[in-house]
Amino acid sequence: MLRFALACFTALSITYLMLHHPMASASTSAPAVNTVRIATGEFAPWTGKDLPHSGHVNHIIASAFAAEGIEVEFIYLPWKRAFEETRLGKFDATSYWYENSERREAMLFSDALIVNRTVFFQRASTEPIDWKSFSDLSQYRMSATLGFTYTEAFYQAIEAHTINPIMVPSDIQNIKLLLAERVDLFATDEMSGFYMAAQLSIDPRKLRVIEPALNSPEGYLLTSKTHPNAQWLIQTFNRGLKKIKANGSYRNILDRVDNSSFYNPRVSSK
């Protein structure tokens, strides 16, 4: 009986040591991951398959993971599919998204990657538009981008028929409508609007940003709550993000972005 008790005690002691040894704890909390696969989409200059470093935001993401010794593979998909397939666990994460209730319910959010500005653009040749509420904009012809995340107040103003924007598939179409004088203003991300203007060789001085901004949303890396390594992915990324902010890499990436940085005046004099 004594031998049996001693044997049981020895077995329990070994099990306890195995479970509480520092190396055992590390192996369960840090999966052997060398590469993460991130679903993303086209939203220049922030994300884009043909952009340097896959766009400024994806450059930040890759740099943050690299600071933790992890490589990133970006897979470009339509935005809705990128979100849904990540939610279902087909990808490790998806880049990048603004916050809403649907996303909060299904996904874990990283620390904020960036603060964007959603603004209204008008032609610089026209009288500046002054607005404080959507009722101030009801007299103007407006367009907006399908699939873009605007504010709840923006959608409520549409439902109330306070504003009646033409919804178009891309910011390039918004700019073409504006310069053709078919609309008076359009709403989109500030730097995306200037980038798309540059793709049409349009001098950014032909566009005016109307203040105040519609909003200043934060962008995040998301992973599905059902992903087996969800907590580890977010914690690892957040650590890397802090490192690149501390060493100046983060600031160096964003310092390259302003409203004229995409435009080459030698290409066209439009």
Outline the structure in words.
The protein has two domains: 35-115 and 218-254, D-Maltodextrin-Binding Protein, domain 2, CATH 3.40.190; 118-215, Periplasmic binding protein-like II (D-Maltodextrin-Binding Protein, domain 2). 38% of the residues lie in helices and 21% in strands. The chain is built from ten helices and eleven strands. Strands 1, 2, 3, 4, 5 and 11 form a six-stranded mixed β-sheet that branches. A five-stranded mixed β-sheet has the order 8-7-9-6-10. It is globular. Residues 1-28 have low confidence and may be disordered. Residues 1-26 form the signal peptide. InterPro entries: Solute-binding_3/MltF_N. It holds the Pfam family SBP_bac_3. Belongs to the bacterial solute-binding protein 3 family.
Compact overview of the structure:
The protein is of the alpha/beta class and 270 residues long. It is 38% helix and 21% strand. The protein has helices spanning 2-20, 22-29, 56-66, 79-87, 101-106, 152-159, 171-179, 190-199, 230-246, 249-254, and strands spanning 35-40, 71-76, 93-97, 107-109, 114-115, 118-123, 142-145, 166-168, 185-189, 207-215, 218-224.
